[in-house]
Amino acid sequence: MTKDTPLKDQVALVTGSSSGIGEGIALALAASGASVVVNYASSKEGAERVVQKIRDTGSEAIAIRADVSDEEQVLEMFSKTIDHFGTVDVLVNNAGIQKDSEFIDMTIEQWDRVMGVNLRGAFLCAREAVKEFIRRGFDPLRSKAMGKIIFVSSVHEVIPWAGHVNYAASKGGIMLLMKSLAQELAPQKIRVNSIGPGAIKTNINRSAWDTPEAEAKLLKLIPYKRVGEPADIGSVAVWLASDESDYLTGTTIYADGGMLLYPGFATGG
Ligand code: BGC
User: Fold this and answer.
1) Helix/strand/coil (H/E/C) assignment for every residue in 121-140
2) What percentage of the chain reaches a pLDDT higher than 70?
3) Tell me, what's the pLDDT at 50?
4) What is the pLDDT of residues 76-86, one digit of tens each?
5) Interatomic CA distance for residues 256 and 253, integer angstroms
6) Phi, psi of 257, rounded to the nearest 5 degrees
7) Atom of ligand 1 nearest to the CA of 161
8) Rounded CA gap, 82 and 25, in Å?
9) Residue 223 CA to ligand 1 centre (angstroms)
10) Is the pLDDT of residue 1 over 70?
């Protein structure tokens, strides 16, 4: 392990990493020396593109398809990962979707699908990762922790979001899932933390930034006056996965250009 490769010999599984923030995280972990499992639900092409990018830089990667809301598929993904790489050191629970609707029109399908991927999927993957950490055991030569779990939450784990109640409820749920897990697993040297991204340029929020008018409106919510990039989240994930952050557990790091700073109060109140 060196300063440039703090994740050398670590195996990381990143859910939903065929595009967007997950891709940014997978690339950053690989650039820091980790071998990476690029999980995807539907975009085989996207996942293979990310795997190729990683291999081009000299790190190892494989793509594995699994819908994280499906228990059987999650179990299969972990057994394939362990067959291929021997173990898992870092789980990044990134897979997440939005199915937006005004509340009175929200369907049970919109509610269940968002909860299924964002919350149930995070639970299922975390459970399998913990089983594997315990099976492998603590090895101080690998890392100071027996394992690391990183949730990709959102500023909407604390900022209410009208028109997106299923999404905000799922992220609020992730916050206490993360903290309760951190409390339960700390004695076993398993660290559990979250990253809370603000507005990051990906497909999930394309309409909020892909025209100058939309971007100008979005920037009113961002004191730092820049819409984030997936790499802004990747670098935080590297630090949270590495021993550099060994004393952190149960914490959300918000990477949001100041979105949580009540921007409306900059000139008022
Ligand atoms: C959402 C994006 C949104 C951002 C800031 C994220 O969690 O997925 O659609 O732009 O929060 O509001």
Assistant:
1) HHHHHHHHHHHHHHHHCCCC
2) 100
3) 98
4) 999 999 999 99
5) 9
6) 55, 25
7) 12
8) 20
9) 15
10) no
Nearest to 144 by CA among 251, 246, 5, 250: 246
What is the overall mean pLDDT for the chain? 97
Q: Which residues contact 15 (CB under 8 A, 6 or more apart)?
A: 22, 39, 68, 91, 92, 93, 94, 95, 121, 125
Summarize pLDDT for 129-155 with one digit per residue, the tens. Answer: 999 999 999 999 999 999 999 999 999
The residue among 149, 154, 147 whose CA lies nearest residue 181 is: 149
The residue whose CB lies within 8 Å of the most ligand 1 atoms, and thus the one to mutate among 94, 97, 164, 200, is 200
Instruction: Based on the residue annotation, tell me whether 262 is a catalytic residue of this protein.
Output: no
Pocket of ligand 1 (CB under 6 A): 98, 154-156, 198-199, 204-205, 208
- Helix, strand or coil, per DSSP, at residue 192: strand
Please state whether 58 falls in left (phi above 0), alpha (psi between -120 and 50) or beta. left
φ and ψ at 60, to 5 degrees? -95, 145
CB 174 within 8 A of CB 122: yes
Look at residue 247 in the predicted model and tell me its pLDDT: 98
Which residue among 167, 224, 247, 262 is the active-site one?
167
The model's pLDDT over 196-214, given as tens digits with 9 standing for 90+, comes to 999 999 999 999 999 999 9
**Which of 155, 138, 158, 156 shows the shortest CA–CA distance to 147?**
138
How far apart CA 65 and CA 74 sit, in angstroms, is: 9
Residue 269: band (very low, low, confident or very high) from pLDDT cuts 50, 70, 90:
confident
CATH 3.40.1440.60 holds for 11-256 = no
Q: What pTM was computed for the model? A: 0.98
